[in-house]
Amino acid sequence: MTKRYCLVRAQGAVGASVYGMERPVKFEHTRFLGDKRTQLVYDLDEWTEEGIIEEIVNEGVGLCFGPDTLAEARNRGYTLATAGATRRHRKPRA
């Protein structure tokens, strides 16, 4: 996994800031990661439970969106995951 770094410009200065959790290598340029089994989307900048993200990547049921926005995820039928929310795991269609 890789950490996401963002350059911030403030009055000519440039510094690096770290946001959220470490990114999975396969989805290192993705902010929103969808789980095909549950139709939940995870905001990797805000999500802190790495176990769920690792499970999605290891089982190959992750999906990224283009453009990488929450609105695009919702257009595809996904809802934003919240801590403690669970859904029944279904077999992914694609």
What does this protein structure show overall?
This protein has 94 residues and is α+β, with helices and mostly antiparallel strands. The chain has one domain (25-94). It is 17% helix and 35% strand. It is built from two helices and six strands. A four-stranded mixed β-sheet has the order 5-3-4-6. Strand 1 (2-10) and strand 2 form a beta hairpin.
* CA-CA gap between termini: 25 Å
Structural class: alpha+beta
Provide the number of structural domains: 1
Question: How does the major sheet shape up?
Answer: 4 strands, mixed
What general outline do the C-alpha atoms trace?
globular
| Low-pLDDT runs | 1-18
User: Order of strands side by side in the largest beta sheet?
Assistant: 5-3-4-6
Question: Which H/E pattern describes the elements?
Answer: EEEEHEHE
* Share in β-strands: 35-45%
| Structural Rg | 14 Å
Number of strands: 6
**Tally the helices: what do you get?**
2
Q: Fraction of residues in helices?
A: 10-25%
Round the mean pLDDT to the nearest integer and report it: 80
Supply database-style keywords.
alpha+beta; 17% helix; 94 residues; disordered N terminus; four-stranded mixed beta sheet; two-stranded antiparallel sheet
What is the element layout, followed by pairings?
Layout: E1 2-10, E2 13-23, E3 32-35, E4 40-43, H1 50-59, E5 62-64, H2 70-75, E6 79-80
Parallel strand pairs: 4-6
Antiparallel strand pairs: 1-2, 3-4, 3-5
Offer a concise description of the structure:
The chain has helices spanning 50-59, 70-75, and strands at 2-10, 13-23, 32-35, 40-43, 62-64, 79-80. The chain has 94 residues and is of the alpha+beta class. It has one domain (25-94).
